[in-house]
Amino acid sequence: MNAFISQRAFRAAVELARSAGIPDEAILTGVPTSDTLPGRKKRVSWDRYCDLVACMQTACGGPLALEQMVADSYHRVLPELRFLAGTVLTPMALTEVILRFSMPHFPLTCSVAPLADGRVLTSVRLHPGVRGAPPFFRGCIGSARGVTGHLSLPMAEVDGEISPTHANLATRLPPPRIFGAAIAGLSRTAKYIVRRLLGQPDSFLGLGHGDVGVTEVNIGSTRRLDQGDLDKIETYGLALSTCTTRDQFVDTLLNIVGHELGCARALLLRRSPKHAGYDVLGGAAADEAGVIRIHSLRAGGFEVGRLETSPPRDTHLLDAMVPWMGMGLANWVLPELSSTTVSTGSATLRERLHRASDAWHLNARQAHILESLIRGSSNKEIARELELVEKTIEYHVAQIFKRAEARSRAQLARHFFELVG
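RE: above sequence
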């Protein structure tokens, strides 16, 4: 089947590679200059685009490197999306804005829906008969993780699965309280661009789901655990908890995933203490030509690593074991990461909070409350955490707003990230 993409999408991929320092000769061999420069030509063949992203993956060092490159730079090569991101109210709306902007550029269908746990579920599928493109869908993970870069916020966490023809991704985004300004505050120019690119703005500016579509795709298994399953989970969890070294833990986890749960291949990653990506701890990457399942490993409310596997024999057991794996991995990587490694760059959130507290002359109590506000906690949640009455929290929040010259939580978050980068 002949398929095409917009020239803008092709040039964005080229600009992305250039921003990462990849030379043109590594990705554009045999590509006409007219495909990479503005001009009258409106479309580029999908096959040519697939060849381009495959060359990008090879040039940058493989699938994980491509994902990280997209996560780091995606928002920089599409400034129009960064502009539009400032007009939305919620994480769900931000995802919908980007999907509605991207859909006309590619031969694919998309759908988006909120999940009960606060994540946003996105499904992307190529049109029937269109050439499969594993690097493209690896890039989809990167763009999902880097979607918050449009708002200068920490990277998102992603679970789900990808294949050469589709991606089903559950993205954990920052809470709605720290997202952008209301529609009433938009300039006339912003409203005009929103309407031209995305249609009726009221449908997605935090007020509804628009017309992207609501997906019915499920992430993970819905099978109930029986007593035999619970016994196995207890056995596996005990094996993980008794490991005495990190290497022993990695070997034990990969053995459980491979031999006990039936994954042909599994790759264990940890959040890197040096950058916003991942480091490989052990295992082998799943075959790009098949389905790859992505499991975010979390502990203490944030991501400590990731497990990538081929489809398991016992999906329900693997899904049930993911929390155990996250807690076990945390024992070995938390001393290196610390609970402040939720960064968008080299500086951690704690370092940013210290700089903001100094700039706004906050005392220790107010600095603690500022951290909770940036993480999206409500006054009631902060009061419960600090064992104070809610009126006291309201007083300190008012003082923080005054010193930060903010009139809302959204404006406070924006001033914070503008101040500390």
